[in-house]
Design brief:
8% helix
Amino acid sequence: MPTWLLKPACVGRAESYQYTWYSYDNQSDKMKRLDRAYSAALESIPIPPKVRPGFLAVECRTISRDKVDWEKPVVVYLKLERTVYRVIGIEREEENGWQDLERRRQLAQGRGEQASAE
């Protein structure tokens, strides 16, 4: 099974990582959760089977007792190009919150189809 490294998105030494995979529709800007949240001790995580239209998003959190701020979510967008996924975007939570991430979560859970990012 192909794997993807969390290291580029979640920088630093960590005790573990939490991650959730989503399919992502670039045209409608909607995410659909593919499975439950997972934890990993290593920086390498399995990539889900190919998803149509070919975009994936993974929300990850780095767990470290020394660096509590690392638990803020990072969403990495991947695009399938032939047989390889390429990183096409990274979003990080800001100090004052990240309303866009919450909007995406609501869309993924089928709530708030018209939720605003404001």
